[in-house]
Amino acid sequence: EAIPLQQQLPAAAHVSSPEEEAELMTLREAVTASDLQYSSENEVNGHTLNALNALALRLGQAGRHGEALPIFQRVLTILEDNLGEDHAYTIDCMDAVSRCLLNLTRYEEALPLCVRAAEAQAIAVGAEHPDTIAAAASQAACLMLMDRSEEALVLYQRILKVSERLRPTDIETISLLNMTANCLSDLGRPGEAVPLFDHAVAVSKRTLGADHPETITSSSNLAVALQRVNREFSDGQVQGAVANEHVDEVMPEGNSLKERAAKRVTAESRSVNMNDQTRFVTMSNREDL
């Protein structure tokens, strides 16, 4: 039998606005109505999956990941049982579950899902597809959050090489330049990080503009790396001047590697969830569901 929704959702973690609660109530009612119509958990139907996915997405967008997680997990179980682990919908949902876990700082649980999603994407669409690169980036971010920077660096360097070759000016490539350089800097190799940060700044300014958040992030990252190099080499007067120029542009309050990885995971979670909604919204019209 389908698990009643009220048994799946924990209590709300924070007080929401009346408008938000009204929207969530409507989404919950849609799930309940679909559960009543389709009582068997094995009876896959687009209406139930759409209702569950819409509710989980909205909860995640509101920062209520603890409530979104069991719903995404339910959807994942349905998809795995009926469509298999290598289906596009299953892979998307696997990624959504892993991002919920990352946002809840449950990294040990998230990592196996990140690995599975990346491997499944590579099989489904190819090792160099943007979806595969994004899944691998999530895996690397998880490793960073677990203080496994050496492993994260190897993975970031591999996918950055592919992304630079195929999509040199994409925002994802710029992000990968930053995160790869962040790994190097965190591992005590700021001299190797500086050229990557510098390249990220140049590409970001040219393609996104000087005021774009990614450009600002790249500039501040470069400034921090240059300052670290200057501390190691006291005769770096020219580099020091360049560092101060970038510091004047913007210096983030939280600049640790773990803080940057956590912010990246949160930002990616919002964007991937919106893509998931586009995929799931068409489920009710598919013949294989």
Q: How would you describe this protein?
A:
With 289 residues, the protein is mostly helical. The chain has helices spanning 5-8, 18-37, 46-61, 65-83, 88-103, 107-125, 130-145, 149-166, 171-186, 190-207, 213-232, 237-249, 257-280. Helix 3 runs antiparallel to helix 4 and helix 4 (65-83) packs antiparallel against helix 5 (88-103). Mean pLDDT is 78; it is low at 1-13, 235-255 and 267-289.
Strand content: under 5%
Q: Main beta sheet, described? A: none
End-to-end distance: 18 Å
The number of helices is: 13
Low-confidence stretches: 1-13, 235-255, 267-289
Query: What series of H and E elements makes up the topology?
Result: HHHHHHHHHHHHH
Number of strands: 0
Name the overall outline: elongated
Secondary structure class reads: mainly alpha
Mean pLDDT over the residues:
78
Q: Which percent range fits the helix content?
A: over 70%
What is the radius of gyration computed over CA atoms, rounded to a whole number of angstroms?
Answer: 21 Å
Helix/strand layout:
Blueprint: H1 5-8, H2 18-37, H3 46-61, H4 65-83, H5 88-103, H6 107-125, H7 130-145, H8 149-166, H9 171-186, H10 190-207, H11 213-232, H12 237-249, H13 257-280
Outline of the structure:
It contains 13 helices and no strands.
Keywords for this structure?
289 residues, mainly alpha, disordered N terminus, 13 helices
